[in-house]
Design a protein that fits this description.
The chain is an alpha+beta fold. The protein has helices at residues 14-32, 69-72, 75-90; strands at residues 2-9, 35-39, 42-47, 50-56, 60-67. The radius of gyration is 13 Å and the shape is globular.
Length: 94
């Protein structure tokens, strides 16, 4: 299994960062049939071939995901999309 591990500074409040993460999770759920649920400041998400978390901290967003064999072929594209989302929501990485 391939893994994704991304940490991005968000520079906003935890509440606003959680709202941004909720927005992308909702979009992914509709587009890719991903299920998700919050446990405190950790959003757990999954679908066939993908299992991960998005943890919203005071200053950073931590994204961890395990990709199954077939999905692992899309790892570079998935990572680009995560960075694009973070750039849109929190500004470019310093």
């Amino acid at each position: 299994m391939a893994g994704i591990s991304i940490s991005r500074h968000h520079g906003t409040t935890v509440k606003k960062a959680k709202e941004a993460v909720e927005s992308i999770a909702s979009e992914l759920a509709q587009e890719f049939d991903i299920t998700y649920e919050w446990e405190g400041s950790v959003l757990h998400f999954r679908r066939a071939g993908v299992d991960g978390t998005m943890t919203v901290g005071k200053k950073a967003l931590e994204i961890e995901a395990e990709l199954g064999f077939l999905v692992s072929m899309l790892k570079p594209k998935i990572e680009r999309e995560i960075h694009r989302f973070c750039d849109e929501q929190f500004g470019p990485e310093a």
